[in-house]
Design the sequence.
């Protein structure tokens, strides 16, 4: 007895099948054997990629909101500056009116004090 494996057509078919299976497996492994990080790339999972996209959308929305808020703050600063100027103008007018009222009161007091009383006989004294 020569052994289990006898040279013949069965052994040839077996070897042929083994070579064909190994030949098809090798190119599949060869395609994924090269690591992309060797070229300066980083590989991430699908979940991480989806999370990064969602985060980038959120960042874009926050940047847009931030821009709108900054514009609103700038607008409020401009309105505040205008109101300060208007308040200063009105305060100046108010001070001028108070000063004019004091001046008018002083003139009235002076005129009242400078007028002599005229008293006529048998009559009341008129200022």
Sequence:
């Amino acid at each position: 007895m020569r052994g289990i494996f006898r040279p013949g057509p069965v052994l040839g078919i077996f070897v042929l099948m083994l070579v064909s299976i190994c030949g098809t497996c090798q190119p599949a492994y060869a395609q994924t054997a090269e690591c992309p990080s060797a070229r300066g790339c980083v590989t991430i999972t699908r979940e991480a990629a989806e999370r990064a996209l969602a985060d980038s959308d959120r960042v874009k929305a926050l940047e847009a909101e931030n821009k709108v808020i900054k514009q609103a703050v700038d607008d409020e600063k401009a309105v505040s500056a205008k109101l300060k100027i208007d308040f200063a103008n009105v305060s100046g007018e108010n001070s001028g009116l108070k000063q004019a009222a004091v001046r008018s009161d002083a003139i009235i007091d002076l005129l009242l004090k400078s007028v002599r009383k005229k008293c006529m006989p048998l009559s009341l004294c008129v200022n």
Q: What stands out?
A: DSSP finds two helices and no strands in the chain. The helical segments are 9-32, 46-114. The mean pLDDT is 78.
